[in-house]
Design a protein that fits this description.
With 1508 residues, this protein is an alpha/beta fold. It contains 54 helices and 29 strands. Bound molecules: guanosine-5'-triphosphate, magnesium ion and zinc ion (2 copies). The site of one zinc ion has 7 residues, from loops.
Length: 1508
């Protein structure tokens, strides 16, 4: 410290008062040093407690004020920065005092900030600041305190890891995909460095340690060792394992003893290293080409340690690197290796030298561990002791030795000490060396000196020989596991001491120590997955494939299969849950950390158990596979491999079987209930990042219920963040697929040297918030698959089918499929491509479009991309050929090129990756080029995923895909069997949408036609408005108007179709578009016809009216004459006389004109009567007519809002469900035998039900009545303003206004017009009144008419319209008569969701008359079943080739086996009645049909029609 000043209790008190609170805090403590103890108020690191910085209000003006807002604003390990605000008064300067345990520093300044430096790290200081005025007076101090950072804290803060000491980094954090993953930006600040290192290391990039900021400021640079130490300190056990594993793959040294410079404790990194497995070939195995594969912490190896005493001019690490010929250790000549180490002194690193069995290459012929202590042994004696007790030899590097070498001489150990000095160092003293050597009893052999004559290479060689010597002769060999005991004795912690880790270990050991013989163990402890599960798989597939149906009746055969399955499930249930499984399930039910430790222990233990046997087998397998001649041997090894492999997947597989079997127990069975939580448990593990087996590669099957339930639980756990994107890898076996995924995503799929991955595994990776939007998903699912076999190998075990199934499944599940190709073997590649292309073709046919990425491995030339242009062309050509072949097989020959199947560009769709190892294993590090190329691929894949047009699938959709893909895969014919509820859903949505658009359009056209008809009917009358005098001209105009509207609509509908959500249903789009076009044509001709018809009628009417008009004129003339005559005669006639006279004349005239009756009786009536007459005779009928014309579309519209009528499918569903509920034979009979009539009645019934009580119809009517009244009133008002000459023209004006909407009978009007001279004003007044009354009368009338009566009177008949709409094309299944449900007007294929027994189509055996139970959806997949009918010219024809006879029908086999339960139930129930009705013998009902309950029937209906 700069300067020591008297402590605070001196007599300077008169200058300043210590604030009360400050005193209070320290009351009772040592008077001399007020802040003697920090414990009771020391703020936590980095925090600052401002104790009191307020000045007292009572201070007089002359009293100096202490500074205000005094605070510490920056803290480092050796400095504190303070600041304060100027108080009132004339301030000259400030005095800052800093003290800790009697050390006091005082500094003065005239600014408002001060940085105190050269402080001690991790110490709490009391801080005071006082103001000094010009007059020399000094204020009371403001006070605070602060703790400087420790070295560790300060480094962690620089790295942005300060919170991670407590809350450790976990795997899910470091593996998540975030923005940094794809941006590839260099680190910008220190806090970027650990992430940068992690990102690179997780991709096993050997450049990971080159962590340098772009800044030139060298004091900013951090030593890589500090970063590594910091990361280990901040990581949990699982991340540490991952770090160690990846570092050792890079051939970096890994921490053996990890120091903590704060606590001075170090920890043995035993757990962290447990995952490292190494393979090598000692000299003894060179001949036999054998090798040893071992978990390195369990290998008994000699360890050679290298330490330094004092300063040393030789670079120990550099020399070691030369010795091991790898960049194993960070040293000062590496990037940032010369930056000062802040926390990594005391670190002991370890690395291994492993021979490859080649004398010329191996530095040491036996494996050896090399340890390296960072820092001076004088400062790290614990570490040094540890090394002395564990190593075969310790090499001590030094420059100077003095007699105080107690450090060396005091050690109690058996290790050999070697002294390594540099003769050239000027501090070197031979005498001291000899003294120490004598003290230690060392011979010359134990002293290595680098002399002037030696260059580095010579020196390294000498060193190497010495080490070799030790290695060959030392008995001191030790497993790292054993070092834990020594660590304990020395007070060194061991990283697996936590109780979670220990309990987990105990649990795992309890299971695995029981394992003696793997095959026997599996049979005893994991019995459900053995032969039973394989047999179940066979039955499941046979249920769909029906290969062995032979001459049996199919439905009986299927029923038998079902019984067999039930029996096997029973057998599974008869096993008690084994001991091992009970332990296993208990252990994975423990809390998260313990569970993770347990699974890791299990994995390692099982690996150890099976390694010995397997690695040898795998190697032999690989060897034999090179030559497929060795068929029998390969087959045998393969079987052995499968028998003796045992991993945790077997335990999960067993769990799945236990669960699935339990589902066949009654729901209330306790043993079933106890297992209900298993899926959730497993879902949790998936979220933890554990790979879960999707396809069991041994049985070649997916336990569908188990996996679906796990995924459904997963969905619940994740919701609402449940969107996923799926990446899959496919390729030839053992071509590094798992390695590729592991490198790409930092994950741990099983990797090995032989055939290793079986089936398919899925794993979840979190997507970080910062790119969720871009990727539109929350998790990425990665699926690793078992290698596809080449056909030669596939023949051996019929695995070709398995390969095909697997490829189809995973391609169908993924958004991006990586196709891994090892270039060197192009025939193999071709065979695999065939499988893959096939899978892609199938996906295209079912509406899913995955993207693909070809990866060519082992291509290291920089010019690869250029050079391989030709290869890419060749690949393209081959892909095209394969597409054609696949298309032919799937009977989809329209696919000619690969690009027809999928979007693929040879340029961007290919990626070249150099070989994995840089050199020859085991000492080869991963090739940086490999890692970089994989990183490019990763970025590319993420980019492709980001631009995926498909909306991200959520977990439930994924599950749906998985189920439907796998069910289709179980069939012989995939495309033809594929049924997916998502596709069905999308199709249904499209139908619903289309129907809505269509209805909107129809409604529009109904209204338009009604209006047009009104216009035509009013044409040429007083109500006619048209300027055109020629009717044909008018019709022409209307037609062109109609065409315009129709065209507009057609365009709009086509646009709607193009924009609508058409993912998955693209193939149907065309059909809908055609439907729209044909609909337009139909509508056009119908509209034109209606217009022409209306015009024809109108023309006829005009003729008639002309005649009538003449007659009326005649009549009117005569009446006038009569009246005139009377007037002339001046005869006062009574009313009666007049009537008589009038009647006389009337009869005469009528006779003359033969004209029908006309009423003139109210000629003289009042305006009121006239108005009433006009209303009753002209307006009311017109309004009534208007209402009835409008009601039809209203009713249809209302009915269509009902789900049942929205699409043909939901209509069928509703009818069938209704039948089931009614449970009445006659209804079924009527539905089956007179389908159309039944459906018509059903619809009518629904309409009547809907409108008989509801007020809806009244609302419709009233709406139209009211709107009519509104326009009538408006017309009257308008006419009033027009000042008509007489009542006739007034009425004409009114009628003309109404002409657009109402058709007023010309007859009635003509009659009304005669002799009318009422007063207009009065008339108008009364008219308005009458119209009001009319509304009421109409409403009453409507109310009295029942719906059936109304329906008859409507112009548009809802029941007919609905029927036409819902019956669709009207086609029925040629086998079972199930009605077609395809949407759209013109569909290319008819289909029905639910087929039925052909018994219901009255099919029977011609001999026995027994009804046939066969169902057409089964018949079409039955190998040998045949039919004959008119269409085949009564020739026999295979059902499965029905397409040749009925090309426009698509009869899908049942998606699930339960789908046809509905009709099975019906036939079983009414068998006798049907037989009687059909005059046949009852069908032989298969046993299982009788067990179907009405609930199951209903379920099956829901499933078939995809109703949730
Ligand atoms: N020489 C070399 N070896 C590699 C390369 N990629 C992977 N390997 C090694 O090949 C072996 C098999 O790798 P895996 O990743 O298990 O191969 P896989 O394709 O997943 O194998 P299966 O799942 O059994 O079909 C491992 O020992 C890898 O280390 C490479 O590019 N070059
Ligand atoms: Mg693999
Ligand atoms: Zn059918
Ligand atoms: Zn159809």
């Amino acid at each position: 410290m700069a300067e020591s000043v008297p402590t605070m209790d001196n007599s300077e008190e008169e200058f300043y008062d210590v604030p009360d609170s400050f005193l209070e805090l320290h009351r009772g403590e040592g008077e001399k040093t007020p802040p003697a103890s920090q414990t009771d108020y020391a703020p936590s690191p980095g925090q600052v407690a401002a104790l009191n910085a307020e000045s007292k209000a009572s201070q007089s003006v002359t009293e100096p004020n202490p500074p205000v807002q005094f605070a510490v604003y920056q803290v480092s390990s050796e400095s504190l920065s303070l600041r304060w605000d100027t108080p009132a008064g004339e301030v000259e300067s400030y005095i800052v005092t800093c003290c800790h345990e009697g050390d006091v520093v005082q500094e003065s300044t005239d600014t408002n900030t001060l940085t105190l430096s050269h402080l001690k790290p991790g110490v709490c200081y009391s801080l005071l600041v006082s103001t000094q005025l010009r007059n020399g007076r000094i204020s009371k101090p403001a006070a605070t305190s602060a703790k400087t950072k420790t070295h560790l804290e300060s480094l962690l803060e620089d790295l942005g890891l300060e919170d991670r000491l407590k809350e450790k980094l976990s795997l899910s954090t470091i593996l998540q995909i975030d923005k940094k993953t794809i941006t590839d930006e260099p680190p910008k600040c220190n806090a970027d460095l650990p992430w940068y290192f992690l990102k690179k290391l997780m991709m096993v990039n050997v450049t990971a340690r080159n962590v340098k900021l772009n800044s030139t400021n060298s004091c900013d640079r951090l030593n890589p060792l500090d970063i590594i130490t910091a990361l280990f300190l901040c990581s949990d056990g699982f991340v540490r394992q991952e770090l160690s594993l990846k570092m050792s793959m890079c051939q970096f040294s890994v921490p053996l003893l990890l120091p903590n410079c704060d606590t001075k404790q170090c920890t043995l990194m035993l757990w962290a290293m447990r995952d490292i497995v190494k393979k090598y070939r000692p000299q003894s195995l060179t001949e036999s080409k054998g090798f040893i594969e071992e978990r390195i912490v369990l290998s008994e190896l000699p360890m050679i340690s290298f330490v330094r005493l004092g300063e040393c001019s030789l670079s120990k690490s550099e020399i070691l690197n030369k010795l091991l010929s790898n960049d194993t250790f960070v040293h000062h000549d590496m990037e940032c290796g010369d930056s000062p180490r802040r926390i990594s002194n005391g670190l002991v690193e370890i690395s291994w030298y492993l021979p490859c069995g080649n004398k010329n290459m191996d530095v040491f012929s036996e494996p050896v561990a090399v340890a390296n202590l960072r820092g001076d042994i004088a400062s790290f004696q614990t570490q040094f002791s540890f090394l002395c007790q564990t190593s075969a030899a310790v090499f001590v590097f030094f420059d100077t030795l003095d007699s105080e070498c107690e450090l060396l001489t005091n050690q109690q150990h058996k290790t050999q000490i070697f002294l390594v000095g540099n003769h050239q160092s000027n501090r070197f003293s031979m005498d001291a060396l000899q003294n120490v050597a004598a003290e230690l009893g060392l011979t010359n052999n134990n002293i290595l000196l680098k002399t002037k004559q030696m260059n580095d290479a010579d020196f390294v060689k000498t060193l190497g020989e010495t080490v070799s010597n030790v290695v060959e002769n030392s008995k001191m060999k030790m497993r790292i596991e054993q070092m834990a005991d020594i660590a304990h004795k020395l007070g060194i912690l061991v990283d697996e001491e936590s109780s979670e880790c220990q309990t987990a270990k105990k649990n795992a050991d309890a299971i695995t120590t029981e394992i003696q013989d793997i095959l026997q163990y599996k049979e005893a402890e994991l019995p459900l997955q053995g032969q039973i599960w394989k047999e179940l798989t066979r039955l499941e597939k046979e249920e769909f494939r029906l290969r062995n149906v032979g001459s049996k009746n199919i439905e009986d055969y299927k029923s038998d299969l079902l019984l067999e399955k039930t029996q096997l499930r029973k057998e599974q249930n008869s096993h008690d849950i084994s001991n091992a499984m009970t332990c296993f399930i208990n252990a994975i039910s423990s809390p998260e950390i313990e569970r993770c430790y347990f699974l890791k222990w299990m994995r390692m233990n099982l690996d150890n158990v099976s390694r010995e046997k397997l690695s040898d087998l795998r190697e032999r397998y690989k060897e034999k596979c090179k030559n497929p001649e060795n068929k029998e041997e390969i087959k045998d090894i393969d079987r052995q491999l499968s028998n003796s492999s045992l991993g945790i997947e077997h335990f999960f597989r067993e769990m799945g079987q236990i669960y699935e079997a339990s589902l066949s127990l009654p729901e209330t069975e306790p043993s079933r209930e106890q297992l209900q939580h298993l899926p959730k448990l497993c879902a949790q593990l998936l979220l933890d990042g554990l790979p879960l087996e999707l396809v069991d590669g041994e049985a070649s099957n997916i336990p569908l219920r188990w996996i679906s339930d796990v995924l459904s639980q997963l969905n619940d756990l994740m919701s609402p963040l449940n969107k996923i994107l799926v990446v899959t890898v496919l390729g030839v076996q053992s071509t590094g697929k798992s390695t590729l995924l592991n490198t790409m995503f930092g994950v741990q799929f099983a990797v090995s040297s032989g055939r290793c991955t079986r089936g398919a595994f899925m794993l979840l990776i979190r997507i970080n918030e910062d790119i969720k939007k871009e990727l539109n998903c929350d998790f990425m699912m990665i699926i690793d698959t078992e290698g596809l076999k080449s056909p030669e190998l596939a023949q051996l075990d019929n695995s070709h089918e398995h390969d095909n199934e697997l490829a189809t499944l995973v391609v169908g599940l993924s958004d991006v499929t990586i196709i891994n190709i090892a270039m060197e073997n192009s025939t193999e590649m071709k065979d695999i491509l065939q499988i893959v292309v096939h899978a892609f073709l199938r996906m295209k046919e079912v509406g899913k479009k995955p993207k693909c990425q070809f990866v060519h491995q082992n291509v290291s030339d920089v010019s690869a991309h250029e050079k391989n242009l030709r290869d890419r062309k060749l690949l393209m050509q081959q892909l095209n050929e394969m597409t054609q072949a696949a298309a032919k097989m799937e009977k989809k020959e329209e696919n000619k090129n690969f690009s027809d199947v999928m979007e693929y560009s040879p340029d961007t769709g290919n990626c070249y990756i150099p070989g994995l190892w840089n050199g020859s294993p085991p000492m080869a590090p991963v090739n940086a080029g490999y890692s970089e190329a994989v990183y490019e691929l990763k970025k590319n894949i993420i980019h492709v995923l980001g631009s995926c047009e498909s909306s991200a699938n959520d977990i439930l959709e994924f599950t749906e895909w998985m189920k439907s893909l796998w069910n289709a895969v179980k069939h012989e014919n995939f495309i033809f069997s594929f049924r997916n509820s998502l596709v069905a859903d999308a199709y249904m949505k499209l139908c619903t949408e289309f129907n809505k658009w269509e209805w909107e359009f129809r409604q529009l056209m109904y209204t338009w036609v009604t209006d047009a008809e009104t216009r035509i009917r009013n044409f040429g009358t007083v109500a006619g408005k048209s300027e055109i005098s020629d009717m044909s001209e008018c019709v022409k105009q209307l037609k062109s108007e109609a065409s315009t509207i129709l065209s507009e609509w057609e365009t709009k509908l086509l646009e709607n179709l193009a924009q609508g959500h058409v993912y998955l249903v693209e193939e149907y789009k065309e059909g809908f578009a055609n439907g729209a076009k044909s609909l337009r044509r139909q509508m056009q001709s119908s509209v034109f016809n209606q217009l022409t018809a209306a015009a024809d009628i109108r023309n006829g009417m005009t003729e008639l009216e002309k005649i009538k008009e003449n007659h009326t004129k005649e009549l009117e003339g005569r009446v006038r004459a009569l009246i005139e005559e009377c007037q002339k005669k001046n005869i006062q006639m009574t009313e009666k006389e007049l009537d008589e006279e009038f009647d006389k004349m009337w009869t005469e005239t009528q006779k003359e004109l033969s004209f029908e009756e006309m009423k003139f009786d109210d000629i003289y009536n009042s305006c009121q009567k006239k108005a009433e007459e006009f209303t009753r005779c002209c307006l009311k009928p017109a309004v009534e007519d208007f209402v009835y014309r409008s009601l039809g579309p209203d009713i249809i519209g209302e009915m269509l809002t009902n789900e049942q009528f929205s699409t043909r499918m939901s209509f069928q569903y509703s009818v069938l469900l209704d039948l089931l509920r009614k449970d009445d034979f006659e209804n079924y009979r009527s539905y089956i035998c007179s389908y159309e009539e039944y459906v018509k009645n059903w619809i009518l019934d629904k309409i009547v039900k809907r409108f008989s009580e509801a007020s809806t119809i009244f609302e419709f009517e009233d709406r139209h009545v009211q709107s009519s009244i509104r326009i009538i009133n408006a017309a009257v008002n308008k006419a009033k303003t027009e000042k008509s000459a007489n009542l006739e023209s007034f009425v004409k004006n009114v009628c003309q206004e109404l002409g657009d909407k109402l058709v007023i009978s010309q007859d009635a009007l003509g009659a009304f017009m005669i002799l009318n001279n009422a007063d207009q004003e009065q008339f108008a007044h009364w008219l308005t009144e009458c119209v009001k009354d009319m509304a009421q009368v109409l409403q009453e009338e409507f109310n009295e008419t029942d719906i059936l009566m109304k329906l008859i009177q409507l112009n548009v008949h809802p029941q007919k319209e609905l029927f036409t709409k819902l019956i669709g094309c009207g086609k029925q299944c040629p086998f079972c008569s199930a009605p077609c449900e395809a949407g759209g007007q013109e569909h290319s294929e008819h289909f029905a969701s639910l087929h039925r027994s052909i018994a219901l189509g009255q099919y029977r055996c011609s001999l026995s008359q027994i009804l046939s139970t066969d169902i057409c959806s089964s018949l079409v997949i039955t190998p040998n079943s045949t039919f004959r009918c008119g269409a085949t010219n009564w020739e026999r024809h295979h059902h499965k080739d029905y397409k040749a006879i009925f090309p426009d029908w698509k009869i899908s086999p049942d998606g699930s086996l339960e789908a046809s339960d509905y009709w099975k139930y019906v036939l079983a129930k009414f068998n006798n009645k049907f037989a009687k009705a059909f005059k046949a013998e009852p069908a032989d009902i298969p046993v299982t049909w009788n067990m179907i309950t009405p609930q199951q029937a209903e379920e099956s209906l829901k499933e078939s029609f995809n109703i949730k």
